[in-house]
Amino acid sequence: MPLSDHKVLVANRGEIAMRIMRACRKLDVAFTAVYTAEDAASGHVRLAREEGGEKSLFQVSSYHDANELMAVADEAGCTAVHPGYGFFAEDFRFARRVTKRDRKLIFIGPSWKIIRELGDKINTKRLARGLGVPTVPGSDRPIYDEMEAERIAKSVFEFQEQQGIQRPLVLVKASAGGGGMGIEEVYDPDQFRSVYRRIRNYALRQFKDEGVLIEQRITDFNHLEVQIVSDRSGTNPVHFGTRNCSIQSTGLQKRIEVAPGFAPDELEYTFNAGRVLTDIVDYSLAMARKVGYDNVGTWEWIVTRKGEPFLMEVNTRIQVENGVSARISRVHGKEGVDLIAEQVRIGLGQPLGYSQADIASEGVGIEYRLIAEDPDNNFTPWVGRIEHFQWKDQPWLTMLTHVPRNEPYEIPTEFDPNLALAIIWGKDLDEVKARGLEFLNNLRLEGQNGAGEPLKSNVDFLKANTGRILRF
Asked: Name one Pfam family in it (predicted).
């Protein structure tokens, strides 16, 4: 079926919805967008009206209502659904429903079986260990035997001591739990047995399953990612490099992402940073081949101060920060890589059409997440009205935002107050940092809340942390 015969339901909002729409137009694929009443002023609504054809925009009561989304898809004559990120992006039940309903649609993402397989962190850890991929020490399945639990806990304590951690700890958690329920930290090996028994009994009472997981918490690390892309054959995955996402809020939410993940030619590391980047790419590709991965995905890693990588999880979706990897990537020597367009194209059945040898990278990219929040108050979201949002256009700057540039915008309280993504390119680390600061210093972002208090944003936080990007 030619791409031009398809129509994609954009089952998301804001800047990611806009990126999906633009990718569809680039590919000559029709689309239908959705919005809620709270999002009526969002840029994705305006773009859908300007760029879409007949039945290109529908109001829904919620982005979380699968029944409503399916009704829109049917009414608009859609052939596929793109979930973006968040909402239904990693919900294998939703993906399965999309592909198995009476009026079948294509789910633009990995197959539902892969989402289910890699969405289970215990299963992912077991799969990784079977391939010799390093994972964080601890159990890869629920533990029901006290003696086995003690052996695992001992190995976790010993590993941390080898890392030079002054006060090792073990996490003991109910395997059937969630939302932070049924978790305790153990610092004293002699206390492990009593904590294990307490969590096991709690799990049995609360969840009717006394399985317990024993894990390590690594606190001094860099957070790296590997961007994987593969077509529906699942046999030829390629990578679009690495990213470093270590500059985060106190709640461990990413605020600055940098591609590539380290700069071994420009910065000194206490370990072989180039080798680490090669290793995590090779490990990620090995897992992708093993499961027959068939769309875009991100393998998330932690790298310790000793330069030891451990797989954390796999995100079976497009990520917010895909654009910074695309910005430094070249396919057949050409700029302008669009990973969302690639996702749509291969999701609709086209072959990848290139190999790893055809992909190269050039320069360094920074992605700033511009957010209405108060970094000095635990990154508390700010609610109010943006009155001015302006920046100086540059050839090295890409701005992705659903916020109107030249008119006031009321931030919806129903969603996270993410305002924009600013992607900066430079030929090297010094240039990209200088350009990043130039952008932030010239940015005009002003507004006030209902009490007349001025807008709070993370711009100063981004400025303060630009100097330390890619440093461990």
From this structure: Biotin_carb_C
CB 142 within 8 A of CB 185: no
pTM higher than 0.90, yes or no? yes
Q: List, in sequence order, every beta strand (DSSP E) within 88-127.
A: 106-107
How far apart are alpha carbons 463 and 472 in whole angstroms?
18
Give me the residue label for tokens 């090779």: 282
Q: CB of 320 within 8 A of CB of 256?
A: no
Q: Which of 53, 63, 61, 54 is nearest to 16 (CA)?
A: 63
All domains in the chain, ordered by first residue: 3-108 (3.40.50.20), 137-216 (3.30.1490.20), 221-467 (3.30.470.20)
Contact 86, 59 (CB under 8 A): no
Residue pair 296/344 in contact (Cβ under 8 Å)? The answer is no
Tokens 């992605």 sit on residue: 367
- Write out the chain's pLDDT in tens, 472 residues: 899 999 999 999 999 999 999 999 999 999 999 999 999 999 999 999 999 989 999 999 999 999 999 999 999 999 999 999 999 999 999 999 999 999 999 999 999 999 999 988 888 999 999 999 999 888 888 999 999 999 999 999 998 888 788 889 999 988 877 666 788 999 999 999 999 999 999 999 988 889 999 988 777 899 999 999 999 999 999 999 999 999 999 878 999 999 999 999 999 999 999 999 999 999 999 999 999 999 999 999 999 999 999 998 999 999 999 999 999 999 999 999 999 999 999 999 999 999 999 999 999 999 999 999 999 999 999 999 999 999 999 999 999 999 999 899 999 999 999 999 999 999 999 999 999 999 999 999 999 999 999 999 999 999 999 999 999 9
Distance of CA 128 to the CA centre of its chain: 20
Looking at the annotation, which residues are catalytic?
317
